[in-house]
Amino acid sequence: MRGRGFVFGCFFDANISVFKICIFFQKSSILLSKVRSMRKEYIYIGILIIAIVAVVWGIVGLLNTAYKTEEAKTIHPVEEIYENENTVTTAMEEEKVSPNAEFALKKYYDECSHFQYEEAELPKELVNLNEQEVEDYYEDWEVEKFSADQVVLGKEINGYCNEHFIIRLDDDTIHVYQLGTSGELKEYQSTDIARDYLPEEDIEDLEEGITVYGEGKLSSVLEDFE
Ligand SMILES: [Zn+2]
User: Fold this and answer.
1) Of 92, 96, 110, 220, which is least packed with CB atoms within 10 Å of its CB?
2) How far does the centroid of ligand 1 lie from the alpha carbon of residue 221, in Å?
3) Is the predicted pLDDT of residue 117 greater than 70, yes or no?
4) Ligand 1 center to residue 112 CA distance, Å?
5) Interval between CA 111 and ligand 1 midpoint (Å)
6) How far is the CA of 222 from the centre of ligand 1 (A)?
7) For the whole prediction, is pTM greater than 0.85?
């Protein structure tokens, strides 16, 4: 019997079915070895691809580094110019408050959208400070304008400004009330303009209260009643 059946180590009689099994095993083993050799080939191909990629990567990397070094060399003088410009700009940013600078506070009132601008004496502590230092000095205020000659600080205030007045008839004479920051009324001025000398129409308005904005307007309205 073709001894091939025994190649795989089948020590059985030449029984056909056993023989077939042996052939099957033999074929399988050939196939398996083929697969193995194919695997090996794949592994070699794989290693080769990785090697090629690594070499190409290395070359690209080297070229890139070389290019960057070259670029750095060419750009360097330009950077030096920029550096000089920056020094000049920084010197300008480093502007400091002069001892005779103007100083003002700007308050924004969010209830009435008015703002109040008050000039004040420059606090001595601000002299020779730069913008950032002034900003840091005041926790609640923002630096709105800054130069050696002028510092303006701004702040938002929750409420009404102090320019809202109500003119009203109380105890038969005209009184002026001021609207407080949170909307409360406080007596601002009492006059000797008496109810008896006012026309009926004005009395009605004054009993309800006339709202006036600004001290200038307040004086002119009061004059009309005198
Ligand atoms: Zn206001």
Assistant:
1) 92
2) 18
3) yes
4) 4
5) 7
6) 20
7) no
